């Protein structure tokens, strides 16, 4: 997914405060919620499936909430819109959000987990006639990643280290996921760190998987979740709790029934039903774990992505009491 980003303080200062999402706070009526309408940034990838399920099944409505999904181009745009006040929450890769907070862009709170690593869902691929056979062969080769300092780049670096070769920053090339199959075929890059449905696309063209990026030190790595600003979390605690309860119901469903994900993907992505039935999906964790998120932070620190000592616990909004 264009799931990560590096946003500078200057970009944040340039944001103008617009707040169409703020106007609903006075209309909460008798629900007990501070506001009843939430604008939520979403990305048309499998990670967002629980949100769509919660909307379709009326889980938000049951909590007195109207959730308006707004497609954002990626995590960086989501952060900008959060800080500008035009959305209330957004989907984002953990690595990107940690980078943003590390750079002083803002203070964020994760409200719910969304997506995690699973076998076959995050891989490094080469074209069918590539001489590259193993991870060690990636030394000095050009590797496409969707965004610099993304989960795809970090996990590629980890797998290369495990194989005994050092990755260098200049060997990574930014390419949107949809452009990666063509970039492999025309030789712009030697390998590509890919997700679905592009893994399936490249496999049908004869492409080969060199390694699963989520093995060994990165097995079961958290990938993305739903977050807001610390200020918003503090200002609307009852509303955030209602969002957590509704999304939690959907997360439980998709975690236990792949068919629900397959039926939902064509509704908000360009993944058709036939492809949805065969792609490799990540996991849908049902709770936010301080230990799991700290693992991401520690990996980022080890590989030089962070300058400060972030604490996962301080970036998690506790779930409502059951």
Automatic annotation (TrEMBL):
SUPFAM superfamilies hit by this protein: Periplasmic binding protein-like II
Listed InterPro entries: Solute-binding_3/MltF_N, SsuA/THI5
Domain Solute-binding protein family 3/N-terminal: 37-267
Coiled coil: none
Highest taxon, organism lineage: Bacteria
Pfam family name, one: NMT1
UniProt similarity note: Belongs to the bacterial solute-binding protein SsuA/TauA family.
This protein's name: Sulfonate ABC transporter substrate-binding protein
Native species: Sphaerimonospora thailandensis
């Amino acid at each position: 997914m264009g799931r990560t980003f590096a946003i500078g303080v200057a970009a944040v200062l340039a944001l103008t405060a617009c707040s169409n999402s703020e106007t609903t706070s006075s209309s909460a009526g008798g629900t007990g919620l501070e506001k009843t309408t939430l604008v939520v940034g979403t990305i048309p990838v499998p990670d967002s499936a629980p949100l769509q399920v919660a909307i379709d099944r009326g889980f938000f409505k049951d909590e007195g909430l109207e959730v308006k999904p707004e497609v954002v181009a990626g995590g960086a745009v989501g952060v900008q819109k959060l800080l500008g006040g035009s959305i209330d929450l957004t989907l984002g890769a953990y690595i990107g959000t940690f980078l943003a907070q590390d750079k002083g862009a803002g203070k964020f709170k994760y409200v719910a987990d969304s997506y995690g690593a699973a076998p076959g869902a995050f891989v490094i691929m080469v074209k069918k006639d590539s001489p590259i056979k193993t991870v060690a062969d990636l030394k000095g080769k050009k590797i496409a990643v969707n965004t610099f300092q993304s989960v795809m780049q970090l996990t590629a670096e980890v797998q290369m280290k495990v194989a005994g070769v050092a990755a260098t920053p200049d060997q990574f090339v930014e390419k949107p996921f949809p452009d990666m199959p063509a970039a492999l075929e025309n030789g712009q890059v030697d390998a590509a760190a890919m997700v679905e449905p592009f893994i399936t696309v490249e496999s049908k063209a004869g492409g080969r998987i060199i390694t699963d990026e989520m093995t060994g030190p990165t097995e079961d790595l958290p990938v993305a979740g739903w977050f807001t600003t610390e200020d918003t979390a503090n200002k609307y605690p009852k509303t955030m709790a209602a969002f957590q309860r509704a999304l939690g119901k959907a997360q439980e469903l998709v975690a236990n029934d792949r068919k629900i994900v397959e039926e939902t993907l064509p509704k908000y992505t360009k993944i058709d039903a036939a492809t949805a039935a065969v792609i490799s999906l990540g996991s849908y964790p049902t709770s936010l774990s301080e230990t799991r998120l700290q693992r991401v932070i520690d990996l980022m620190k080890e590989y030089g992505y962070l300058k400060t000592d972030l604490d996962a616990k301080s970036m998690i909004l506790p779930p409502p009491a059951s």
